[in-house]
Specification:
Elements lengths: L1 E5 L3 H12 L7 E6 L5 E3 L6 H5 L10 H8 L3 E4 L11 H10 L3 E4 L2 H18 L3 E2 L2 H4 L5 H7 L5 E7 L2 H11 L4 H10 L8 H4 L2 H14 L10 E2 L7 H9 L2 E12 L2 E12 L12 E7 L4 E6 L4 H15 L1
The chain binds NADP nicotinamide-adenine-dinucleotide phosphate (NAP).
């Protein structure tokens, strides 16, 4: 399967390493890489290792359409920066790929949070696959969990600790560091959005909540419909005082169906340390689903990093293959 990759940052490069490590069993070929400031690489027969590992590619393709036409791939892999306000330009990238008969895999939650139903219908009309397992919880199964293993189960609500950056910031402050130190530590792990404000102000969590609601609850909502308050007002003193009282803070994304609507809420919640949502360390993510037939159950991912995000993308590619 030939791949046209749009965006070659932390996740793109981690995916490149994974594709190389698994190339004997899964012979994917990267025929194009397109970036914003680092140019474009094209080789219809497959890019060499040296070409893929270059720090700068050739001249940037004039448009996404020109890039996709030149790459002539079977599948577009959308890994550009999150825009939680509109989901663009990733949505336009995905439309362009479907218009060329390509499957699409993305780790970008923007399109799922803003335009899921339209993109799903477009994929269906085009007879192409559309996968996005990494958009919410890196490689840990969330969407595939329901798609493959829980027939007939309806999701009534969810509560998730889904933003690793804010957890690293809170833990850094608990250990005496400043807010900015925590953000720098998360950035060094490659897990922070290009604009870290999206993480700590709660917009990454709101986009994930909207994506979950759109896919699992047919909500047709957006991040802007969520009531959002992030962790920016926390101080090391306040966090350490809570720690002395056996409490901590988690940025929690919640969704709940009432009648025909789904309400979304993101809050920095003060929780007992023993609370399930507070129990996991470091960058760990955890989500609990409330359902009609399976009660409440969840998924947890302990200390995921960018390699787990790359795995989620890889798992989608293998499924399509
Ligand atoms: N990092 C994680 O742990 C993680 C986890 C789950 C999901 N995600 C999602 O995965 C996506 C990628 O994350 P990342 O950490 O790899 O981001 P990143 O390191 O900031 O890389 C983003 C890449 O997208 C390129 N890009 C931006 N706008 C573009 C445009 N208009 N056209 C073509 N290329 C464009 C950038 O080009 P330049 O290199 O030229 O700047 C860069 O290569 C994001 O949507 C993020 O939300 C990330």
């Amino acid at each position: 399967m030939k791949l046209a990759i749009i965006g070659w940052g932390n996740v793109g490069r981690a995916l490149g390493r994974l594709l190389r490590a698994k190339r004997r069993d899964f012979p994917f070929r990267i025929t194009g890489i397109h970036t914003l400031r680092h140019g474009t690489a094209i080789a219809p027969a497959g890019l060499s290792r040296d070409a893929i590992e270059a720090s700068n590619f050739g001249p940037r393709a004039a448009s996404i359409e020109a890039f996709l036409d030149a790459a002539a791939a079977d599948c577009a892999v959308e890994l550009t920066t999150l825009n939680p306000s509109t989901g663009e330009p990733a949505i336009a990238h995905i439309h362009a790929a479907f218009a060329r008969g390509m499957h699409v895999v993305t780790a970008n939650k923007g399109p799922i949070a803003h335009a899921y139903a339209a993109l799903r219908d477009e994929a269906h009309r085009a007879g192409r696959g559309f996968r996005f397992e990494s958009a919410v919880m890196d490689g840990a199964p969330v969407f595939n969990l329901f798609r493959h293993t829980m027939p007939a189960v309806k999701v009534l609500g969810f509560a998730g600790v889904l933003n690793s950056t804010s957890k690293v910031v809170v833990e850094t402050m608990e250990h005496g560091g400043a807010f900015e130190d925590g953000l720098a530590a998360a950035r060094a792990l490659g897990i922070t959005e290009a604009d870290g404000a999206y993480d700590v102000e709660g917009w990454d969590s709101a986009a994930k909540a909207a994506a979950l609601a759109n896919v699992l609850m047919d909500a047709r909502t957006t991040p802007q419909a969520a009531s959002v308050r992030g962790i920016t007002r926390l101080t090391p003193e306040r966090v350490q005082q809570m720690a002395r009282e056996g409490k901590t803070v988690r940025l929690v994304s919640r969704g709940r169906r009432s009648g025909n609507t789904v309400s979304l809420r993101v809050r920095a919640e003060v929780l007992d340390r023993s609370h399930l949502l507070a129990a996991t360390p470091g960058t760990s993510n955890l989500i609990l689903f409330e359902t009609d037939l399976m009660g409440t159950f969840g998924t947890v991912s302990i200390n995921p990093g960018v390699d787990q995000t790359a795995y989620g993308v890889f798992s989608d590619l293998v499924s399509l293959l």
